[in-house]
C-alpha cells in the first residue's frame, strides 16, 4: 500500500474508532438515497454520502502527457472559406490529401463531470455514527467483474 493510502487508512481508523463499519445495499439511488442493512431500509435524512458517488460530481483536471504515436490519413480534403470578415486577408480555398505521422507531448486541462452514480443493488461500505449512516464508498465482491468496472 502506498504511503498516502496508509495515511488515509489511519485517518479513517482514528475518525471511526468505536464506530461500526457495515456493508449495506443501495435500495433507492441518489438523489433520494436510501440503503438497506439487515432487512431495514435507512431513510435519506439519516444518510451522508461521499460526494464522488453522487451524479454531477465535478473536478478540475490537468494532464501532461506524451503521445507515443499518431497517424492521420486524409484521402481527400476540401475547404472553401466563406467568411466575409477577413480584414482584407482572404483565405484561399484549400484542397489536398496526404498522411501525417508523429509523436510529441501534450497538455490538457478543463472540467470533468462524473455522471455515473450509485444504482439500486450496489453494495456500499458504511460507517455508522450515532443515528447517521455515512456511505464511504462502493464495494464489490471479488472476482465479480470488478476489473471490468475499473
UniProtKB/TrEMBL annotation:
Organism of origin: Fusobacterium vincentii (Fusobacterium nucleatum subsp. vincentii)
One Pfam short name: DUF2577
InterPro entries recorded: DUF2577
UniProt-recorded name of the protein: DUF2577 family protein
Amino acid at each position: 500500500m502506498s504511503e498516502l493510502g496508509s495515511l488515509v487508512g489511519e485517518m479513517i481508523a482514528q475518525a471511526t474508532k468505536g464506530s461500526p463499519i457495515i456493508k449495506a445495499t443501495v435500495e433507492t439511488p441518489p438523489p433520494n438515497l436510501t440503503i438497506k442493512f439487515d432487512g431495514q431500509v435507512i431513510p435519506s435524512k439519516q444518510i451522508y454520502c461521499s460526494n464522488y458517488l453522487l451524479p454531477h460530481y465535478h473536478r478540475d483536471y490537468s494532464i501532461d502527457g506524451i503521445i507515443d504515436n499518431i497517424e492521420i490519413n486524409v484521402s481527400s480534403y476540401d475547404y472553401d472559406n466563406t467568411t466575409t470578415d477577413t480584414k482584407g486577408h482572404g483565405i484561399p480555398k484549400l484542397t489536398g490529401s496526404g498522411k501525417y505521422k508523429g509523436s510529441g507531448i501534450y497538455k490538457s486541462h478543463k472540467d470533468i463531470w462524473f455522471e455515473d452514480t450509485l444504482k439500486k443493488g450496489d453494495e456500499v461500505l458504511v460507517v455508522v455514527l450515532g443515528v447517521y449512516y455515512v456511505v464511504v464508498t462502493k464495494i464489490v465482491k471479488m472476482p465479480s467483474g470488478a476489473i471490468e468496472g475499473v
